[in-house]
Structure formats: structure tokens, C-alpha cells
Amino acid sequence: MLDLLIRxxxxxxxxxxxxxxxxxxxxxxxxxxxxGTMTYEALRVLDARGKIVVxxxxxxxxxxAHFVAMHPEDNxxxxxxxEDTRGMAFGGTTTHIDxxxxxxxxxxxxxxxxxxxxxxxxxxxxxxxxxALGGALPLDIxxxxxxxxxxxxxxxxxxxxxxxxxxxxRPPYRLDFGRIQLxxxxxxxxxxxxxxxxxxxxxxxxxxxxxxxxGRTQGWNMPLARSKTSELLxxxxxxxxxxxxxxxxxxxxxxxxxxxxxxxEARGRGLPVYAExxxxxxxxxxxxxxxxRGYIYHTYPSLKYKEDRDALWxxxxxxxxxxxxxxxxxxxxxxxxxxxxxxxxxxGNLGAEARVGIVYSEGVAKRGMSLQRFVEVTSxxxxxxxxxxxxxxxxxxxxxxxxxxxxxxxxxxxxxxxFHVSDYSPWEGWTVEGWPVTTILRGKVIADQGRLxxxxxxxxxxxxxxxxxxxxxxxx
Length: 476
Description:
Blueprint: E1 4-12, E2 17-25, E3 28-33, E4 45-47, E5 52-55, E6 57-59, H1 81-91, E7 93-102, H2 108-119, E8 126-133, H3 145-150, E9 155-159, H4 177-190, E10 193-197, H5 201-213, H6 222-225, H7 228-245, E11 249-251, H8 257-268, E12 273-278, H9 279-283, H10 306-318, E13 321-325, H11 333-336, H12 352-367, H13 371-386, E14 403-413, E15 431-441, E16 444-448, E17 451-452
Parallel strand pairs: 1-4, 1-5, 6-7, 7-8, 8-9, 9-10, 10-11, 11-12, 12-13
Antiparallel strand pairs: 1-2, 2-3, 5-14, 14-15, 15-16, 16-17
């Protein structure tokens, strides 16, 4: 007796797309077979006729329950997993990866334990954490990297830039390149990957000074401070160092054509270099800052220009850009619009709920992205690069039964009522073609036709281990 049988849908498997039935027993997929060939009875049958059946989305980049450093005097924090993962469940994301920040004065293992405890029993979907290393860390901190990888945390985030101008209450983000080199040595030797926010620190902070002196501090000048040249230089320097250290690199929130080109060049030379972009970067640009409420579209680095949007879509469609994340940083509208200068516009996005649907609508429906490629950029590639595959990111026997049904017949203009996290969404007023309608986490239907059936106890911490091929060549 099966627990669940999904019948009649167009199923995207790792090897082909076609009409298949998907059988689930307990938390696992046990079979994917041609229609009518499975004779097992099931406790529940889902009719997926007219629907597209894909693996649950994997959101590789979230900042939940995170200090809002843009407004350090106010002691604000982003919404937690109990709030934001509700939207993920509705939007077809079944796993997310957040961050555990290690800074000077922190105990490595105690901090990681506290971060994981914050999520326990408070997430509708599965989760893991990148370990973020920031500030002038004692060198012996890096000795913990091999053990962290053994415990299932194989990705290490570094910033090549302090994201904001100095303030006594702002925590450090930047890791100097000497310490980045040390991290790369430890990570490469133990089967981990570097996750890099790459901007040139000197260019960014000198531009902050220049714009301040010139009286051009309005937030819409952000692309001048967080420039395309800054991304170019930081990407190139990081790739050169990683090549020497034989380390794999995953560039987060690639925002500019120049970043895409550096990644494509590195991959062309056989280096294990991967790029993530955001659906915000692919659909909005710097002109959107000048709209009423225009700062709802901002994250760090900044939105760029039309040529960059075009380059990002080209990269998503053809390969150099491997994944779509969000830099999820959920707040209320009041907090999001609290700043209006280059030094205090609230960063991050509120987009995890919309990510799968927007990429389907903009990629598949409007730009002809194949369903196979859609699954890669929303799920499978993140699973491969960050060590979740094939447990996650695949509709295949033995994989977790994390499954999403997308209805391609949906045609609507999104309203506030379509979202379930905050009091606003950047996607209000956006017209879509196709949208997730059913989300299944490890065999349990957690959202269906606009109703939430999951609970905060459903999400589990998932240990990760990266395939050696991902770390030796551009494997996806």
C-alpha cells in the first residue's frame, strides 16, 4: 500500500520529461513509472492532469532572524523561519539554506548550536545553514572547518567587502583575503565549497565617500557605489585565488554582466565555479529605484541595468548561471522603506514565496526555458552544488518526496492576497503565467490550492555532503 500516488502529470525527472505516475511510501519516492503500469493501491491519490510535476524548490540563500544592520540603533531583526517558511510552503520551496555567522569573540560550536536550535520546531520546510566567517577572526577558528564539514555543514560564506559604511553597532562582514585564502585551504582539503559575496571593498567604500562629498546620497545612486566594476574585480580576484587553492566557489547574488562573464570564463577553463543570481536582479533594474516604494526592490549589491538583466537571463537559459536565490531578508513594509540613502536603504528581499512561480512565468512561459532547465535553476543545481543531491532536487526512486505541482493554466495579476509572509510583496501587480498550487514535503502535502496543511514541526535540519565531482569541475 502506497501512502501517495501522483497521477497524470507532466513529470520532470533527472533524465527526461514526460507523462509518469509518481509513487510515494513514507517520506520517499519509491517509483516513477509510465501511467497505468503501477498496480499498487494508495491511501491518497493526487490528480495531476494538466499540471507540471517538479522537485521541491531549494532556496539557497536566506537571512531569517537576522540583525538589520542598516538601522543599527533600532535593534531590528528580520522575520524568523516560523513566519517566512510559511510563504515557502505556499510557493513551492521545500528546503532553504540560511546562515550561521561566526565573528570575533564568538564560540564556533556554541554559535552553530544556538542557530540550529532557533529553527528546531519552527520551520514549515527543511533547512540547513552555510557557516559565514566575518571580521578579523582568530586564525585557530579556521581549524574548525574540517569538523564542520564532517557534521554536514560543507559551505562557508565570506564577504570580500563590508556591506555598509562603518558604524560602532554594525557587526563586521568582510573577511580579508589572507583569511579567505586560509579558509579556502581548509575547505578544499575537506570537501567543502566557498560561498562568496564578491565586491571590491576599496571601490565600494571610496565611492561612498565620493558620493557623500558630492551630495549624491539618494538611494537610487546605489549602482554607483556598488558598481559593475566592483563586481568584475572581486570576481576575478576570487577566482584567481580559488584556482591556486584548488577550491570550489559559489558566487552568491551575481548582479552584473561582468560577473556572468567571469564565471563563464572560469568554467570554460574547467574550474569548479558557480553563479547564483536573484529573480529580483533578472526582473528589475536601477530605474525601478525611482518609483514610489522603489526601494522594496533593493538588495546588496544593487540592482544594475537592462544589459545586466539580459545577461542574467542568458546565463540562466544557457548555463553559466546555475541557480536562482533570493537573499531573503523579510521585514515589514515600514522597515523595508525605513532608509532612503545609499548608507541605510534596507537590503535583502522578500521573494522566497514568489521565487519558483516567477522563474516559471518569466523563464518557461515567457522566454522558452525548458522544464529541465527550470528544475535545474530552482532546485537540482542548488542541491548538487551545496550537497543535498540526490536526496533533494530530484524526482527519482530513493529521493525525498519533495514535490511541487505547477498549474501552467494560471493567468493572473498578483495581489497582496497571493502572499503569506509580510504586509507587502515586491511582486504585487506582476502578471504571471503559471503558478505553484501544491507543495509536498517528504510525502506530506503541506500546501494545496491556497490552503496550508503543514506545521512548524515539519521542517528538519538536513546534513549535507558535496560530491567530489562538483568540487573538481563545473559539474552543473
